[in-house]
Design brief:
Layout: H1 5-10, E1 18-22, H2 29-42, E2 47-51, H3 62-65, H4 70-75, E3 78-79, H5 92-108, E4 112-117, H6 120-127, H7 138-151, H8 153-163, H9 165-168, H10 176-188, E5 209-215, H11 218-234, H12 237-246, H13 259-263, H14 267-285, E6 291-295, H15 301-310
Parallel strand pairs: 1-4, 1-5, 2-3, 2-4, 5-6
């Protein structure tokens, strides 16, 4: 079922193909997806968005995770958003199974899936077949959990950087879960250095896929991020986080960017962490094979959508 690498860039939105829109937070992915949907619908196609976001799956965290609102979902149907209670745990393996079923079903029905996201691993999980690492034994995880409790995530991240700098580079120094997991996998011999510049991505996808990456001028993007965080707070994100906390939010739900910061009322820290995430997303995105990079600086979403739909995908090896 895997498409050969050359067919990925050649998809060009032909029937039976997938369109994937990736980019850093606040770059304008939702706006572009809506503009693409309007143009596709006008051409007689049935576009449906499939979220490739690790945290938009949670009901009750819509403001914090940037789930499109009711008006936007009325314009473009969105799948895999707001379907889990906040006390549920969730894994990329579970997501991959659901995303594959959604995309396969949409293609079988003649629809055009638009996979939209800023979480790289979930984007890959939606489009390709993952080679998932095993779950470390409980005793190994417990040992590193104790080290985490004693020294804190930043100290454990620094230890990871000394052990495996290539592994630490892709993990936020405050991401407790991923830091512990990386140490545990290293102990098991299950975490190997990347074989190439970006092992996370593969040029082989389950269906012919056109992959578009959105960028903006860095300073403009940072201004949009700060404004977006302020808009989230104004819309009630702090109350949303407090309600999720009171409802027993799971460890995976609490990994939503800004959860801890807004729980403490630290808006500036959330803005800073979001800018740091965007920087890592931009760096990672530029390594994707077959990516068509589009700069949105000074351009509206409809202009970008028109450019995507009017330009054939360039064939890459």
């Amino acid at each position: 079922m895997t498409a050969p690498a050359a067919s990925i860039a050649a998809a060009a939105l032909a029937p039976g193909g997938v369109l994937a829109v990736f980019g850093p937070t606040a770059v304008g992915k939702t706006e572009v997806a809506l503009a693409l949907a309007a143009r596709l619908a006008a051409a007689g196609r049935r576009p449906v968005a499939v979220s490739a976001d690790a945290l938009q799956v949670y009901s009750g965290l819509e403001i914090l995770t940037g789930v499109p609102g009711p008006a936007e979902r009325a314009r473009l149907e969105h799948r895999l958003v707001s379907f889990l209670p906040v006390d549920a745990t969730f894994s990329v393996g579970q997501y991959a199974e659901l995303a594959h079923a959604e995309i396969d079903g949409l293609l079988a029905a003649g629809a055009t899936p638009i996979v939209v996201g800023g979480t790289g691993l979930y984007l890959r999980a939606a489009l390709a077949d993952l080679d998932l690492k095993p779950v470390p034994p409980q005793e190994v995880r417990d040992r590193w959990a104790v080290a985490l409790a004693q020294g804190g995530p930043e100290a454990l991240h620094e230890q990871l950087r000394r052990r495996a700098p290539w592994a630490a580079a892709g993990i936020d120094p405050r991401d407790r879960h991923r830091i512990v997991r990386a140490h545990a996998l290293l102990d098991m011999g299950e975490l190997e250095p990347p074989e190439g510049p970006n092992r996370l991505w593969t040029a082989d996808t389950r269906h012919p896929t056109r992959l578009v990456g959105l960028t903006r001028d860095r300073e403009e993007l940072y201004r949009r991020i700060d404004a977006r965080v302020e808009a989230m707070v104004a819309a009630g994100a702090i109350d949303e986080v407090r309600a999720a906390h009171a409802a027993g939010a799971s460890t995976t739900a609490r990994r939503a960017l800004g959860f801890d910061e807004l729980l403490a009322g630290d808006v500036a820290s959330m803005q800073r962490r979001t800018r740091n995430l965007a920087r890592r997303q931009l760096t990672w995105m530029r390594k994707l094979p077959g990516l068509e990079l589009l700069d949105m600086t000074g351009r509206g979403a409809d202009d970008v959508a028109a450019a995507i739909l009017s330009t054939p995908a360039a064939v890459r090896p």
